[in-house]
User: Fold these one by one.
Assistant:
Number 1:
Amino acid sequence: MQYAFSFCSDEATNRSPTKQKDALFFAVLPSDEVRIRATHVRQRLVAEHSLQDVLLRPAPERFHISVFGVGEFGRLRREHVDAAMRAASVVVLPSFEMRLDTVASFGRARRDGRMHRRPLVLFGEAADLSELRRVLANAFKRGHAGQFAPHMTLLYSPTVIGSTRIEPFRLAVSEFVLIHSEVGLTRHHIIGRWRLAA
């Protein structure tokens, strides 16, 4: 496990005026190979559907699959991170593999400038990831973790694309991470890593 706290000091900090809030969440990260394949899928979708006004966010280095949201804060503090660290320390689960095989527009449209854009995502199997989510929720004493649709966001576009099967590829999950997101600045900081059992 590795982590740092420089971003959440209780001392006064120089915050960008464009940052909206701090978010803290657990996620799994794709391998370099999966990032490359996901990027190719994104490029193909843009071309095949002649997508206009596309927001190519997140960048490939920020591709991830969210597992459990710790919370959103006006200012992230050490106690928020400490609570997340304690929750992660109770996880004892085996590593697993998940399959990504479907793309579709997902969730609500987000207003960006003059356009309403919806996320276009890669969907995957939920069973093992749902168990990791359940364990983390229990550690936070949240007995019900809510509905869960594991996905990796590829881009945002006003064009709605229906569920489409793609050639499947697999993501080996051997660890999960804790991410601090500076919402509005599209910055992700990985502040903790935990290995799953081999």
Number 2:
Amino acid sequence: MDIKQQKIVNAIIYFVKNTKNCKKTKLFKLLYFLDFIHFKRYGLSVTGMDYIAIQRGPAPEKLFKIFEKNELPSEYKENFTIQKEISEEDDTYSFNILLKNKKPDLEWFTPNEQKVLEEVVFFGKEATASQLIEATHLHNSPWNKTKKEKGLGTYIDYFLAIDVETTFSVDEIKERFQIQKELNG
């Protein structure tokens, strides 16, 4: 398993273990915050995943498809399973994430990445999926801008996270992001 996959798997374990009622939708929002907060601060995402704008907010595209098809790669199956749960009341469904390995390996993350993981857990620990959806839908959020400008089903540009709190120049961030994309293939 490469470093990108290690980070994804261990972030999933970390969020499921350290937040309440972390099912698919909540997990996707926590991963989004992890990647976009880290990008805003350091010019790099943590997981390297691409996010798309769907009705319920941002979703990591490949992970979204994996969950929908219930086709977990072997490196995921070694650490967790997903269980589709259908509501008898309204025929909606949710995905429970059942951990096999209860302890994430934080050695895969840099100190800055670990700090952002902790921050995301701090504000997401008690939050419901609905509250996190609402947070991703705020005016001028990357999801909101993408929905307005490009529509649902399109990629959310990481550069939409850049704001006055960003410490690197846009050129520095572009260079860092390009290097990360090249390394991740």
Number 3:
Amino acid sequence: MLMKRKMSDGQFKAMQGLMKLIDTFYPYVKSRARSFGVQPGMTVVDYGCGPGRYTAEFAKLVGENGKVFAVDHIDIALRETKKRLDKTGAANVELKLAKGYDSGIPARRADIVCAIDMFHHVEPVQFLKETERIAKPDGVMIIAGGHMFRSRVKAFVAASGLWEVADENFHFLTYRRKLTK
């Protein structure tokens, strides 16, 4: 996952501190993670996992028979995610250091691919090709938050020809793989 500009460790720590502050005063991660439709036994990809806030929640939701892949392109993100997971005892998470846009996840593995507050950091075409590659035929992609207007996100995804909007609410977009004729 190539960011348009790679975040330094210092920038990552600052972002992580801000997230901790937000989570203290507005603890929405747990309820938001549940709203994505994650069920026991699923395989979920937290693409651009950052410090693992959602990864830890997904690990609880999929249960011991499910799997979570936490993917990021910077080492510090995976180290911080591992620290968080070590505290929870989650054994159903695999950390993946992306090489460019290659997540290292086998094709057609994910029930849900989540891109939470990170879409503004990627080059959309290559990122969307990778999410489509790793999603099961009936898999979905969730794009939530971020610092990009929703209309722009929708335009990038539509232009890819790979995904179509399945549902939309105030907090996130749900996409399904586009059926080919």
